[in-house]
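Appendix B, example 12.
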Amino acid sequence: MKSLFLFLFLATSLSLYGQETTQKAAVPKVTSMSRPWIWGAHFQAAWNGVTGPQLPGNFFYKPGVAGALLLEYYPWPWLGMGTGLGYTSRGPGKINPDLDQSLGNPDSTYREHYYFRTMDVPFYVALRSPSFNQNRCRLSTRIGGGFSRNFKSTYMFHSVEDGFHDYKDMKDDFYKTDFFTHISAGLDLNSGSQTMFQVHLYWQKGQKNIFRTDGVYNGFTGYNQAFGLQLSFFY
């Protein structure tokens, strides 16, 4: 009798569990394309330079990378807001006049590079269009800015002859903090039941002079600027 009772109890429990599992499976999960709260990260590959009315020489744009963790909230399907925490490697290169004009000479141009390592806190408004292509795609844009903390400024002279580059710490000659504006626009892609992939083109510009008035670049004015490709994923 006890064995029969135990068998009936287990059979009933398994039946109820199966029904509950089926009911849960029948309820579709809300995708990140539709949820009010989403989180994720982005990666930026950009050309970084400096622009301004009074620069100490001629500068060129050089490649740099950045990444950030992001959190976004959408009170309405078409409008949201976001913030995050990121790391950026940016900075321009300096063009020198090639007076010697021979291969490998010390004054060859495009050999002076500046590197700024920063931690960034962005704040932005996000706008989204209605989805299309069977809820697989939509247009989106971000407009905002943020705060940047520069914790390392380095000068490097490229030695193409032997590979022993000349490094110099220039933290006392460049900015410590900056505020920046940011604009990006592109496409959101529904890449799964829980994931959204985002491809944007972006532009970013600093609002504070990168040259310190008490450094070797006293009297000069320049602002960080970057543009490139921004790849994001959200859950």
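Residues 4-17, 19-28 have pLDDT under 50 and may be disordered. The chain has one domain: 32-234.
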